[in-house]
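Sample pair:
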Amino acid sequence: MSFTLTPNSNHQFVFVNCEGQMTSAEITSACQQTLASLAGKGCKGVLADVTALQTIPEMEQLFDLAKFTWCHFRRIGRIAIVVRWDQSRVAKLLELLVRTVGVNLTVFVSRDRAMTWILGNFQKAPCASPPLKQSIVANFGDFRRIGKGRT
């Protein structure tokens, strides 16, 4: 397990770089050290690059990480996580879990876009598919209409 913490030059955010194999305990330790480095610096957020991480958390670990994030990082301005495409499914689930309880965490596959978002200048590009919440509501509406047609 290897991770490094680096505040950016004007202390607007802390950069966390994780690589190799990490257990849940090591991830928790990295989060605690990140919190300690944020204390008293007035940082706007955290940018975590996990693209070099070789482990993907199991579902139980993901829920533990979501709970830890909610308990300890909800008062942090913004949290950006940079992932590889093969990590994005699990990372997006983490994003969904913590955003529902008010944590401002967003997952990116581009480090540049993550950095821009952390600094507060992020403009979402229009996407071809609707956001997840709208998609679920739209699909649920379709299921209700189908159910009404049946006898």
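The CA atoms of residues 26 and 66 lie 15 Å apart.
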